[in-house]
Amino acid sequence: MNTLDVNGLHVTLPGPGQRRQRTVLRDVSFSVAPGEALGLVGESGSGKSMTLKAVLRMLPTGSRTEGAVRFEDDDVYGMDARALRTYRSHRIAMIHQDPRTAVNPVRRVGDFLTEGLVLTHGLRRREAAARMVRALADVGIADGERRMAQYPHELSGGLLQRVMIAAALATGPRLLLADEPTTALDVTTQQEVMGILDALRRERGLAMVFVTHDLDLAAAVTDRVAVMYAGTIVETGPSADLHHHAAHPYTAGLLRARPVIGSRTRPAPLPGRPVSAFEAGDGCGFADRCTYAQDACRAIRPALAPLGTHTTACHRAQELADTHALEPAS
Ligand code: SF4
Question: What's the mean pLDDT in 239-268?
């Protein structure tokens, strides 16, 4: 049984003036097995964070949802209020991009860390504090008691993100949702925080959905990657061979746009701007930025189809693979 199954998820939100619904996610399907890490990759606005909100059933007011989200075979959108509370507080945990937006700046770190355990897990405050000191030690914070007496502004960004990881793991979740957890940190701290998160996840056999715009980071810490564009998944494949065998022109474009240490090839930014699902029209959402676009691409939306170890949504995927057109320049 998978930890998470998302099937044909379609989400619309009210447009300006609440008059017309606008599509923000279109036919999103993926699954995550116990202990597996899936990377959701794409530019801003591609639907990555909205997908996490849909998994948490925390979409904005007025949204409409079709399709299914199943957690260990439970229908998330069929849960009553009590089951939903248990799902969010015991079975799933979220790590946000900027830890400072997830804490109350006028309350001590210890209040934030123990509150959930006291309110939803029924622990006494002293028991909760002892458990959190151990959880802080697990993320490399040896002086947990001192840190718990401090306020968030007294901790560096890296330290505060480690506190967030401790908080997320302390409730014993089976699925971790990580929304660009290192984007707000400097490069060396990023490496440190990712190392801790990756080690603890593997040690505890947790499933994870890891959202990032950084393909290299996704390839390093996940088993599989799903690339999103215009609110839909355009390619999935094993993280290990993503760099050499991109099957969709958008994935290949993202790879060409990033600087590579030691390479004499200059990064080539993708032309144009990313579009949202509701701007994508009837055909392929990537057509206006794609070097390989043909008339048929603008008329018919390509569906995800298998291509070797990948799935890809591109009318010309087989032809591009046969001619090695998307392979990186050596
Ligand atoms: Fe490019 Fe056409 Fe493939 Fe879309 S379907 S990615 S426009 S070649």
Answer: 87
**Ligand 1 — pocket residues by CB below 6 A?**
249, 284, 286-287, 290, 292-293, 297, 302, 314-316
Q: For the chain, give every domain's residue range.
A: 4-106+151-322
Q: What is the CATH architecture assignment of 4-106+151-322?
A: 3-Layer(aba) Sandwich (3.40)
Q: How confident is the model at residue 191 (pLDDT cuts 50, 70, 90)?
A: confident
pTM for the full model? 0.92
The 8-class DSSP code of residue 31 comes to E
E-only strand ranges, 72-172: 74-75, 92-95
Structural tokens at position 245: 């065998």
What is the whole-number distance in angstroms between the Cα of residue 303 and the centre of ligand 1? 11
Q: Residue 101's pLDDT band (boundaries 50, 70, 90)?
A: confident
Cα angle value 219/174/212 (rounded, 5°) = 30
